[in-house]
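Session log. Operator J.P. requested a structure for one protein chain; no other inputs attached. Running the standard single-chain path with token output.
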Amino acid sequence: MIEARDDHPHPIGPDPAWSESYYFNFHDPASGLAGFTRIGFRPNEGVADGNLFLFLPEGGAVAVLNRETRADDPADITVGGLVYERLIDLQGWRVRCGGTGLAFERAADLDIGATTVASPAGGRVIDVAIDLSFGAAMPPFGTSGRRQRSDDARAAAASVAAGHFEQLCSVRGSVRAGEAHVRVKGIGLRDRSWGPRDWSAPWGWRWFSIPFGEDLALGVHAVILPGREVQAGWAWRDGALVKVAGFTLDTTYQDRFQRSLVIEASDVEGRTYTIEGDVSSVIPLRVGGTRIAEGLTTFTMDGRTGTGIAEYLDNTPAT
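Structure written below.
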């Protein structure tokens, strides 16, 4: 069960890859602007990363990257010019960022490592400032890591996080990227994870943030391990939060990236969901041999449409 204390730093574990991370994404339907941001503390490695990525309406993208050398897991969530402020436990957060970013005409032209743009040709430096408020639209869904799990769940948790929860949010505020200034009124999702995070441990994962509105949203993911796949997810509908029992995924690829997809999911109450996704823009990230494709995706279900993220992680086989 997720409790208010899970919105605060957790005791640092002994694993060298122990991590505490905070993630937010958003989409403004009026402008088409979208983005996601993550701060991750890895105290046993002595590093903290704070990154922001924007999907521009015309198909471009902006990256703001920060890294600090530090060995703590602080209550003040700040890395470089990126600041996350906890307003009310499990209810409200404020996300601010000020600094410079690198803008590209095509999102796929980014080749982002941990703190650097590996292929900066064609990029230009711009000023970036965001100030967004995230208000909870549903209770948090996830696990605190304090309860016993099945063997499959333990294996998945050991590779990606011991504790994890997600929460649908309303999003309000402003984003300035270069000459563009957008007043944001939209929807998004926040994600909290803590425990060992070894990006290279699973063969891959598929993670979907699927918001149709404050009254209807889904979140499903699958961690792909040798010989098995561990799935989890939730559905928020009509004021009720229901666990997803399982799902199938059919993906069409083009130029290495996901371009369209169909998810067939069912919840523990027997309701089924058929969701089609059209990926309009992909930001490619990498951590060592791990490749992560962040796809801005328009989802359609039962006449409703919404824009979220389809994240595909794949590990490069050792040679």
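Operator note: The chain has one domain: 13-315.
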